[in-house]
Every structure is written in C-alpha cells, then in structure tokens.
Amino acid sequence: MKPKGFTLIELVIIIVILAILAVTAMPRLVDLQSDARISALNGLQGAMQGANDQLIGISSVQGLDTAASASVNIEGDNVDIAFGYASADNAGAWAQIIDANIDDATWGDDGADWYFSNTNPNDGIILYMPASRRQAGLNCFLQYDEATSTAPPNYTLTTNGC
C-alpha cells in the first residue's frame, strides 16, 4: 500500500505559489496609500478648522469679523482674514498659521508636505493637495472657500483620486 500525501518539495512549491499570489493580490485588496492620503487631508481640514476657530475669536475681539479684508497679528505674523476667518491665500494666511512645509503646486520644488493651487487669487478658493497628488486634476485635494458676509468658510474634500 502506497502512502498518500504531499512530498516536502510539493509543499514548498505550493507555499511559494501562494506567497507570490498574496504579494501580487494584496496591494489591490488593501490600498493603504489611498487611505493614508485621505486621512492626511482629513487631518489638514481639522487643523484648518481649528485655526479658523481661533481666528474668528481674535478677529471678533478686535472688531474685524465683519471686514471683507483685514489682517490680525498672530505671534508676530500678520494673517490675512476675510470676515474674521483666514483668507484663501497661502502666503498671507495659511503658511502663517499652519506648521507645515507648503509649496506652490505648479512652481514649487519637490519635497514639500503640501502643495497649494490658487489659479485665481481673487475667487476666494484655494486647493491643498498631498505631495504625491499635486495636480488638482488627480482629484485628491481639500478645497477651502473663504468666508463671505453671509457664510462661514467651507471645506470640501475631493478624494476619489486619492
């Protein structure tokens, strides 16, 4: 009677084949980079909301919460505001109050934490993108719409390209 079962070589070959399948299939099943980008955008949104919560308090005390354009001094930096909240301007507002390396998406060097795009500086909109998705067309960004006389600032996440 011949014993039934696999030889050691057959078992090793099966394990190698399963390992190859796992390595090629795992990235498709678990997209950790996308989740990381979305979480980073959520974190940036939280930081921006927290900064704006503090700005509206400071600007209200100074009577600037109804001004269409003004600036407040935060720890020695002048921060541009619109109706008491940060304006949609990276150099004049967000670079002053967010502790991160932020650069222009089109002209900036590689290596920044975040990239911004503000194609029309007068429209009150600015986009922030993670380093690996620094073009707005890749659909992985946080859009900030500055406050108006009738509405507080708005934050919109676009993550279908993350």
Question: Keywords, please?
Answer:
162 residues; three-stranded antiparallel beta sheet; 37% helix; elongated; Pilin-like; Prepilin-type N-terminal cleavage/methylation domain-containing protein; transmembrane; transmembrane helix; N_methyl_site
Binned strand content:
15-25%
* Overall form: elongated
Structure summary, number of beta strands = 8
- The figure for the number of domains is 1
Largest β sheet strand count, sense and barrel closure: 5 strands, mixed
Transmembrane segments: 6-27
Organism: Vibrio ouci
Keywords: Membrane, Transmembrane, Transmembrane helix
Protein name: Prepilin-type N-terminal cleavage/methylation domain-containing protein
Structure in words:
Keywords: Membrane, Transmembrane, Transmembrane helix. This is Prepilin-type N-terminal cleavage/methylation domain-containing protein. It holds the Pfam family N_methyl. By secondary structure, this protein is α+β, with helices and mostly antiparallel strands. It has one domain. Helix content is 37%, strand content 22%. The protein is built from 3 helices and 8 strands; from the N terminus they run ααβββαβββββ. A 5-stranded mixed beta sheet has the order 4-5-6-7-8, with helices on one face. The radius of gyration is 24 Å and the shape is elongated. The model has no long low-confidence stretch (mean pLDDT 88).
